[in-house]
Write a structure and sequence with these properties.
With 177 residues, this protein is mostly helical. It is built from 10 helices and no strands.
Length: 177
């Protein structure tokens, strides 16, 4: 495969609206998404932890036709579709109690308000270009999830800026699970 084809695919992935969740999450930094696209063995481990099949565990992003079981039941996604909006920040009830509860429950959701404000300000395409950098390993360029304290490719610690900025909350969450 030529370098040009690889670069075109990378640009497409960066700007893919499927990776911009209605709630403001960046799906490209999700352990399930990363595993679906890069690491079948990790996907098998994640699936086993949830008692799901590997096929059930595959996810291609919030707006894709193939999402995780709990993403397929997402209240924010259903609400946005019902209201005809792309992102929760477009809603007159933003931020609603459901979104507030969702945001506060897990460390990968800490920056939802910042993300949604940025999407509203610059649009999802520009936001996708920017937010991706929060999850890129400075050493090898691999995208890591919030819960990858070390880069899953090269082992650098912390794996990315997001982890560096929220390491304490992530470690507390992982310790208490």
């Amino acid at each position: 495969m030529s370098m040009r084809v690889v670069m075109q695919r990378e640009v497409r992935n960066i700007l893919d609206k499927n990776l911009a969740a209605v709630c403001g999450l960046y799906c490209g930094a999700c352990s399930w998404f990363i595993s679906t696209n890069e690491d079948p063995e990790r996907l098998e481990r994640l699936a086993a932890q949830q008692n799901w099949s590997v096929e059930e565990s595959k996810c291609y992003g919030c707006r894709s036709g193939k999402r995780l079981p709990y993403c397929a039941k997402c209240r924010m996604f259903a609400c946005a579709a019902e209201r005809g909006i792309d992102f929760c920040s477009e809603c007159e009830e933003y931020p609603c109690d459901d979104l507030k509860q969702f945001q506060s429950a897990m460390p990968h959701r800490i920056e939802l308000w910042v993300n949604l404000d940025r999407i509203k300000s610059v649009g999802y395409r520009q936001w996708l270009k920017e937010v991706r950098e929060n999850y890129v390993c400075p050493r090898c360029g691999t995208i890591n999830s919030t819960y990858d304290l070390k880069c899953h490719k090269c082992g650098r610690e912390p794996s990315c800026n997001y982890v560096a900025n929220h390491k304490h909350a992530i470690e507390q969450y992982l310790k208490n699970r």
